[in-house]
Amino acid sequence: MDEKRIAPFANMNPVLFVLVSLAVVFVTYQIIGGVISAFLSGAEAGNGIKDIKTFRIVISFSQFMFILVPVIVLNILRGDDADKIFRLKIPDTKIFSLSVLGIFVIQPFLQLYIVIQNKLIFSLPFGGEFVNKLKEFFDILEAAVIGIVKSYSPFEFVIVIIVIAVTPAICEELLFRGLILSNLLKILKASTAVILTGLLFALFHFDPFNLIPLIILGIYISAVAYLSGSIYTAMAVHFLNNFFSAAAVYFIGDDFASTSKDIPQGEFIQLIIWGLVSAALFIAIMFLIKNLFRKNQKIIF
Predict the structure, then answer these.
(1) Is residue 30 part of a domain?
(2) How many Å apart are CA 162 and CA 157, to the nearest integer?
C-alpha cells in the first residue's frame, strides 16, 4: 500500500509558515517586482516615474505574478484545502452589506486623521531641516501616488481602477485574509489573529505616512472577512476603498488626494465634524456586524 504523501510544509508551525510566506512575497513582489517595475517604467529615486502607463501595467502584472502565484504555491506546499483557507464561499448577506457600508462611512475620519497628522508633523518647532526633508519626501511620494491614480479619460479611468482597485482586491486579499489570517486562526484566538493580520497588512505597504489608516483598514477588512466567513467580503471592501480614492481624484481633482496643502479654517472645522460623525457611525456598524455574527454562530468574537 502506498503511503499518503505529506505536503512539505504540512507540519510547519502556523506562525513560522506566515513568516516564511511574508518573506517569500517580500522578495518576489517588493524586491524582484519592484526592480522590474522601476526598470521598465524608468522610475528613478527622487525623479519620480517617467512612464506612468507602463508602470501601472507592470505593477498590476507584478501583483498577480509575484503575490498571487507564490500564495497559491505556498498553500499547495502547505497541503491545506484552498476553499477553506481562502474562504471561497458566499458571505452572509447582512454582514456583507454592513461591511460595504462601513468602508464608505469611515472615509471622512481617515481623511481627517491624515490632515491632522500632517499638520502636526510639518509644524514641529524643532528639527527644521529634518522636517523639510521629510516634507520633500512626502511631496514626492504624494505626487507619485496622484500620478498613478489620476486619469484623463473614461478608458484610462477604467485602467486605473483595474490596477489600483481590482488587482489588489484579489491578490492582497488572498494573501492576507486568505493565507495569513487562516493560518493564524489555527493557533490564535480570532480577535488576536484579526488584529495581527491587519498590522501585517499595514506594514506590508511600506507607507509610514498612511500607517495608522492602513492599520485601521487592515484590521477592519480582516474582521469582516472573518465575521462574514468569506474572502469575497474582504475583496469587495478593499476594492471599494481603493475605488473611492481613484473616483474622487477623477471626478473632483488632485486637491482631494492632497493632504499636505493648507485647508481653510471653515473647511477644516467641517472636516472635523464629519470625521467625528464618521467614526461614531463606523463603530456602530461594527457593533451591528458583531451582533449578527454572534446571532448566526452563537459564539462570542
Answers:
(1) no
(2) 9
